[in-house]
């Protein structure tokens, strides 16, 4: 079971806003070239996002389904990867002072991914999570900056 965490220096609400926007999925999920909500209201239980993975000229389309959601703190997904099977991805948000501790726990459920899961694949998942959490951090910081007014403009306007 691959568990990884990262302290993201924005509020838990900002992280949740990113996770709950189905249109941003491809921006933080490593390996996903594009995504779009295809069923239900993301991130409600049963809602799904379709995504595309590109490997050279090969394009694979699959979907991720919400299996559990506690608004603002927990999101559990089941990612379908065709012949590779499915995986459970649990994302937990914990307030950490003014910031957000994000914990990701992933493990295979069905298919080849589950049958052939070993220490080597576990190491690859850890590397993927490191990159995914870094991307999530970047997206969250961009969202946070765009949500807050530019303080330098406020100061210069107040000085006038």
Q: What Rg do the Cα atoms give?
A: 17 Å
Percent of sequence in beta strands: 35-45%
Uncertain regions: pLDDT < 50 for 5+ in a row? 151-160
User: Roughly how much helix do the residues carry, as a percent range?
Assistant: 25-40%
Helix and strand element order = EHHEEEEEEHHH
How many strands appear in the DSSP assignment?
Answer: 7
How is this fold's topology laid out?
Blueprint: E1 2-8, H1 12-19, H2 25-28, E2 34-39, E3 48-55, E4 58-70, E5 74-80, E6 86-96, E7 99-110, H3 112-115, H4 119-147, H5 151-159
Antiparallel strand pairs: 1-7, 2-3, 3-4, 4-5, 5-6, 6-7
Protein described:
The structure is a single chain. The protein has 160 residues and is of the alpha+beta class. Helices cover 34% and strands 40% of the residues. The protein contains five helices and seven strands, in the order E-H-H-E-E-E-E-E-E-H-H-H. The protein has helices spanning 12-19, 25-28, 112-115, 119-147, 151-159, and strands spanning 2-8, 34-39, 48-55, 58-70, 74-80, 86-96, 99-110. The chain has a seven-stranded antiparallel sheet. Strand 2 and strand 3 (48-55) form a beta hairpin. Helix 1 (12-19) packs across helix 4 (119-147). The relative contact order is 0.20. The model is unreliable at 151-160 (pLDDT under 50).
Give short descriptive properties of this protein:
alpha+beta; 5 helices; seven-stranded antiparallel sheet; 160 residues; globular; 34% helix
Q: How do you describe this structure in short?
A:
By secondary structure, the protein is an alpha+beta fold.
């Amino acid at each position: 079971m691959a568990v990884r965490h990262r302290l993201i220096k924005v509020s838990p609400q900002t992280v949740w806003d990113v996770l709950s926007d189905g249109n941003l999925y491809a921006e933080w999920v490593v390996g996903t070239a594009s995504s779009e909500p295809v069923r239900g209201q993301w991130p409600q239980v049963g809602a799904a996002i379709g995504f595309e993975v590109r490997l050279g000229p090969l394009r694979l389309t699959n979907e991720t389904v919400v299996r559990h959601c506690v608004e603002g703190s927990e999101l559990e997904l089941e990612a379908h990867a065709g012949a590779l099977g499915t995986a459970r991805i649990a994302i937990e948000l914990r307030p950490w002072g003014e910031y957000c501790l994000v914990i990701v726990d992933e493990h295979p459920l069905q298919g080849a991914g589950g049958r052939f899961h070993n220490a080597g694949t576990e190491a690859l998942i850890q590397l993927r999570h490191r990159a995914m959490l870094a991307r999530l951090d970047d997206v969250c910081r961009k969202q946070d900056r765009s949500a807050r007014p530019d303080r330098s403009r406020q100061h210069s306007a107040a000085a006038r």
